[in-house]
Amino acid sequence: MSGDLHMSPDEFRRRGHEMVDWVADYFERIEQLPVISRVEPGEVRAALPAAAPEEPEPFAAVMRDLDEIIMPGITHWQSPHWYAYFPANSSGPSLLGEMAAAGLGVQGMLWATSPAATELETVVVDWMVDLLGLPTAWKTTGPGGGVIQMSASDSTLVALVTAREQAAAPTDTLVVYASDQTHSSLEKGARIAGYGHVRSIATDAEYALDLAALEQTIAQDRDAGLTPAFVAVTVGTTATTAVDSVRRTAGIAAREGMWCHVDAAYAGSAMICPEFRHHQDGLELVDSYTFNPHKWMLTNFDCNLYYVADRRPLLEAMSILPPYLRNEATLSGDVIDYRDWHVPLGRRFRSLKLWFVLRHYGAEGIRRFIREHVRLADELAARLEADDRFELVAPHPFALVVFRHTDGNAATSELAKRLNDSGRAAVTPTTLGDISAIRISIGSTRTTAEHVDQLWSMIDELA
Amino acid sequence: MSGDLHMSPDEFRRRGHEMVDWVADYFERIEQLPVISRVEPGEVRAALPAAAPEEPEPFAAVMRDLDEIIMPGITHWQSPHWYAYFPANSSGPSLLGEMAAAGLGVQGMLWATSPAATELETVVVDWMVDLLGLPTAWKTTGPGGGVIQMSASDSTLVALVTAREQAAAPTDTLVVYASDQTHSSLEKGARIAGYGHVRSIATDAEYALDLAALEQTIAQDRDAGLTPAFVAVTVGTTATTAVDSVRRTAGIAAREGMWCHVDAAYAGSAMICPEFRHHQDGLELVDSYTFNPHKWMLTNFDCNLYYVADRRPLLEAMSILPPYLRNEATLSGDVIDYRDWHVPLGRRFRSLKLWFVLRHYGAEGIRRFIREHVRLADELAARLEADDRFELVAPHPFALVVFRHTDGNAATSELAKRLNDSGRAAVTPTTLGDISAIRISIGSTRTTAEHVDQLWSMIDELA
To answer: Is residue A214 part of a domain?
Structure first.
């Protein structure tokens, strides 16, 4: 094709430098931007033309629209004032790894389609087993193994499908169990996988799975002729980061012949620090585990890790080998083909950014990062506890603090609204049973003690 | 956190410029690199340490290992000598859009979590309806709508699950129909969705779905008490880019009450040129459609588009609203929350790169790009046809040429091996029934007439 159609390497070099500067400038000014976008529904869409351009447009016009039309509609997840949902970390090394991966543009669906993409993935998922104190049997050298997927929703779906295929009863008689605090992806995955029944089990005073209630529900289902097939254990629930007992739930699962899946999507990052690992005690008894470095481990979305204790049922459930994917390496059995570990066939070279992050920070750097956020959360929690206007509504084992205004739900909701309207914070209002509460999730890459002090001053002032 | 832990915006700026240069340099030398990596299984892995570093490492060390350890294990999908599988396009504007999206690091799971991410996606998926000549009812302003997903496998799974939820019979009695040339993601998706039966229907002399065989199998299944529920129509099969009849298959689907899904993962890109649209005649009769701009439309992976004619059954099958995701905008019904359109909750700002591509090239630029590759494929096919040593084994409606050596399967396989071993081409050997064949897929971003001439010379010489 002629040079005027494609962007030449030289023009890419020039525009690429501009874009890197644009991103670096963004990081320099992000702290000053209103965290939550103030556009109204339809505002961005109305500012864009109804049809694509027929002829090429100058790159400068695209950059201008990025600044003028898109940016006002951005909610700044990378702001140091971000306390909403869970963090969606990125970092310099991660972005650089993403750039390299996009530039190479390889498909890692098979070992043969780009061997380094497969082998680096194997190396980093094995590294993570040691870094997080996971069972060594989960390494590729053991019977298990790990793989990078897009999200915990995808991992949980794969776990549900694998368990369903292992179950010796019709799908519509199979039952999935999880606490009423479990992430919605479990219910969604169970629906997609076709499970007949999903039981939402009560939680205890600390919002952790009530094991007596679990056992009672299982017994009732057995009596009704149903087959308990799957139980989800959450280490760090979405609403409050509550921790279900891995060991005790896995014991029940073993006795009942159920698949036991652990969702540590958020809290998994903390396990790089040994002092948090008591929360995952019993992992050697479970079947599968999901964790998101793209939340609180400095690696930009998407980067979810999925581990299984035994890779055979996973491969049996997920592998199909059509003629156009046959190749010597696959047929030899000497290599891993990660397409057999999840739903999609195509896959980006996502291990590259995680490798960049692990090498730039080192394990010790990531531990410092995690510990500082946990310390800041503990401090904020202490301030809230010491003030009569506020009360904590749940323990804070990691870096999420959940509290309410002692004047009740209306005052709590109003405080959340004022904080979010201030432009200087994003928090998530939620409900726990009948209680309105505010989630303060400390974990954004650039959040420091100074930012949390500012947040506390705002809470103090706006309450 | 202290500045020495994170990469500062200034250091990111410097390293970012280095990385852009690394990518630009790669594009300048990519043509000279052996297309297919020559590493042996385990070679890359053995060169990497068994444990992650405890302490931070200098960035230069990471870049050195990228060059020395990773690069020899890369198979160059972006090489202009890439003729294997299908293309996995990238382009300058796409990479710049990806950089911006990664820098912003927003989650577009809800409108409220970053309004511009949702609204730009709506705009570009609606633009694409006009660009590809899709039914206007598929625009967001109509009853249908489009969404960006990771891959056609993900889209097809969503279609299968939605259809299953619409079906009025038990899942294990539901039957999925597709030609024996259908992509493996159909069988995989049907297995994941729990369908009881998948029928592989014979194809005609041009490898398109044999409609008489389809009708006969449906009748047999009805007689056996089963429920025909889903039929897949492929516009551009993987092996030969054969085209099933959309209109006639959709007619059968309507009569039988089946969901009709169109997989145009590869060939969808060609539809930006009106002269190819006769291949998709009848789309107004189907329920869902999947197409990958990340194959042959200059947009780097991942960027799959999924359209439905009616979004209601999709949303009924996929939406779940837990307390922590409730918000005014969602409850008002005035906005789109794309998490309800697919499996994962989290989502990258992928519309940005597609928007960059559409504006940089304009529709006319993309048409030139597609038409040039089709012209080159036609020329290569004419050369092969005119030579007694070769014969085409299938029609070539787009830019894939499939041929064999007239000396038979061994000669064909040997030619494929020689081409791939040359380092100057990557082609895909495949089988069609008992016939060995070679797939030449012309569609890499930088593939020009000169490259295809070189390929022809090699075929001529090595045969």
So the answer is: yes
